[in-house]
Amino acid sequence: MPFVTKLTFTSGDRRLLDDVVDGVKGAAERKGVELKGPHPQPPTDHRVPQSKRLAADGGSFEPWQYTAYTRTVEVHGHDDFARSVAGDDYPDRIHVEAEIEQVR
């Protein structure tokens, strides 16, 4: 039974993320792999509070703010290609998640 592997790439560096996803797409085209995507998701903005001290009354700095960008691709069949892409070494600023679904 065929599998669909959904790969989710996330990074705060939009250009690097697009370069990595374009590289995956190019490799899929060269090998004749059925690939759907990349599908961009809306960017998410995050705010992280920062305390000046460990005590509750220690005050706080301005929150740290950053934006995360996400792209998803789906690989239909071609389990070896999906496994190699998910296991590749990417820059530290790229986070990769793999979700596998069996299709009947």
UniProtKB/TrEMBL annotation:
| Small ribosomal subunit protein uS10 domain segment(s) | 6-99
Q: List, as start-end ranges, the regions of compositional bias called Basic and acidic residues.
A: 28-37
The cross-references to InterPro entries, in alphabetical order and at most eight, read: Ribosomal_uS10, Ribosomal_uS10_dom, Ribosomal_uS10_dom_sf
Q: Name one GO biological process term.
A: translation
Q: Does the keyword DNA repair apply?
A: no
Keywords, in A-Z order: Ribonucleoprotein, Ribosomal protein
Q: Where is this region: Disordered?
A: 28-59
Q: Which Pfam families does the entry link to?
A: Ribosomal_S10
Please give the Gene Ontology molecular function terms for this protein.
structural constituent of ribosome; tRNA binding
Q: One GO CC annotation, please?
A: ribosome
Query: Which protein family is named in the record?
Result: Belongs to the universal ribosomal protein uS10 family.
What does the record note on quaternary structure? Answer: Part of the 30S ribosomal subunit.
Q: What does this protein do?
A: Involved in the binding of tRNA to the ribosomes.
* Protein name per Swiss-Prot or TrEMBL: Small ribosomal subunit protein uS10
What is the native source organism of this protein? Halosimplex litoreum
Gene name of this polypeptide: rps10
